[in-house]
Amino acid sequence: MSRPSAAATSGPLDLLTVGRISVDLYSNEPNAGFGDPQTFVKSVGGSPTNVAIAAALLGHRTALLTKVGSDPFGDYVISKLLGFGVDTSFVGRHPTFRTPLAFAAMTPPEDPVLMFYREPEAPDMTIAMDDVPLDAVRSAAVFWVSASCLSKEPIASSTRAMLAERNRATHTVLDLDYRAMFWASPDAAHSAISAAVPFATVALGNRQECEVAVGSSDPAEAARRLLAEGVELAIVKMGAEGVLVATNVGSAIVAPTPIEVVCGLGAGDAFGGALVHGLLSGWSPERMVRYANAAGAIVAARLLCSDDMPTAREIGEFESTGVVPVRVGDRSEVSCA
User: Fold this and answer.
1) Could you write out the DSSP letters of every residue in 70-97?
2) Average pLDDT value for the chain
3) pLDDT classification of 333: cutoffs 50, 70, 90
4) What number is the average pLDDT over the span 165-178?
5) Does residue 91 contact residue 117 with C-beta atoms inside 8 Å?
6) Sequence-ordered list of residues with C-beta below 8 angstroms from that of 289, at least 6 positions apart, any chain
7) Residue 9, Cβ neighbours under 10 Å: how many?
8) What is the pTM of this model?
9) Max Cα separation, the chain?
10) Given pLDDT bands bounded at 50, 70 and 90, which one contains residue 329?
11) Are the C-beta atoms of residues 104 and 263 closer than 8 Å to each other?
12) Domains (ranges, CATH) in the chain?
């Protein structure tokens, strides 16, 4: 698989994402729990990280604002990002906190159980304004923020400042990205995320994430509330029922592509990277969501997230044939018996 180079940026980026990064370990054994003998495949993860990788593999100049530890896993993550073609100019190193780990057990494959190791604190939550490349924030064609960035300080204040500095420029994307473990309570998450919605031109999330953000899990009502806050493009993921895409002109439901799921993780991030491609290409909302659905289906039919993100050729092939392209790649495995 050919990948673009990751030379230092010169000029505006196509995409700048902000937020979580980790080393992910995926169980090879379907339906095996953490108490069972397992082997794990190592990759790099974190939702904003995966979105940056997905967009880079579709040919875009992407960068990631995050932090890793000053440890061997931090070295591994940066090496992987460079290999995918993601600019690492804004990936910092924390002197003491370790690069986070995330384990995934396929119990079941459609909805894996996750176990995070982010103690005593994850480096990616320590991003302060001194770490922020304001010129890149202002000038990136797409600026993508994960709502989990709003859950802790100092990254929460830095994220609010970046959104204010961005001044709702096209395209400012808020991924509603709710994971309960990052928040003191759903009410705390609602307060922080709902306050960020008016800074976005694009907002996307599933039913639960929309309920946390705007107080409704009903797709049509959630989209209406997002648009009422000034969002120009609202996307509500409805699982097997498809994706609701809405603007002030109208709305539509884009049907999903049936697929045999190998791992439910990463499909949403592949969707995000492909959505970025559609935004940059000037496509209609329905076309970009169909393309994003195809990208998500491909990743759901593979085990990993970042390493299994599709290329434009693979998405085109899948859209034409309905068959997920087979890829054979290098994988790092560890065993836990």
Assistant:
1) SSHHHHHHHHHHHHHTEE-TTEEEESSS
2) 93
3) very low
4) 97
5) no
6) 235, 243, 245, 254, 275, 278
7) 19
8) 0.93
9) 56
10) low
11) yes
12) 21-323 (3.40.1190.20)
